[in-house]
């Protein structure tokens, strides 16, 4: 715990990268296992929903009293809830691994506490969705009230979209640490959002700038990796079509494209933890700055050593 000191933006970015490197293999392992299980679970769930919809449609066609609209609403609601829960488990796992690396602990998968933590994160993400409704409503009202002539030029669309995207990130930054709060402080729903605001409000623009820098860096990594893969896949397909290669070569190129597809999945596993890593690092940095978490932990460690001696 010797390196628990307040960090500026540059040090925060470096520490987040260090945390990512220390937990890299376990992050990929967690992502691989989780997304593989999720894939088969979604296949099963998708088949169940398809059968359910078919039954409802058949009942509706035959004149049954079942309301197709209400059924559709129920299905959409369940799908959204499952999507939020899926994202909650993913974020919780990456944040727990990042915390272990941040404190220099042995990084290991911890499936046992995941259920309770994921449920808390689920409540927090649901609260985030509710908190975004005023912003979404404002955007809808703006476009509804704006005259059509305003958007005659394409630049009006582009400028308004850029402004609203910036405002979205600026508004959402208030809640950016709420998932980490849910994982480490056992808070959920709006209590986690309020706690997130308490942690960032005194350095709002500084933490917002750091978050944007990390987002740009992550987006660059995403774009670079997938751009290279897309270019290679297009190149192989172009060669096969241009030179009218024999069936054997076509099979070979198909195999190459398959390998590139698997490589893109592996890259996704590697890049997916970046968000959780950064927010974990920022969460502890804000607590060190605002609440003296480093002093609190060192005192606790000293107290344990004294008890052990006695």
Number of domains: 1
Largest sheet: none
β-strand amount? under 5%
Q: What is the residue-averaged pLDDT?
A: 77
Q: In angstroms, what separates the terminal alpha carbons?
A: 23 Å
- State the helix count: 11
- Whole-angstrom Rg: 24 Å
Order of helices and strands: HHHHHHHHHHH
Kindly state the number of beta strands.
0
Helical amount = over 70%
Q: Give the helix/strand class.
A: mainly alpha
Could you name the ranges where pLDDT drops below 50 across 5 or more consecutive residues?
A: none
Coarse shape:
globular
Question: What are the defining features of this structure?
Answer:
single chain; 310 residues; mainly alpha; 11 helices; 0% strand; globular
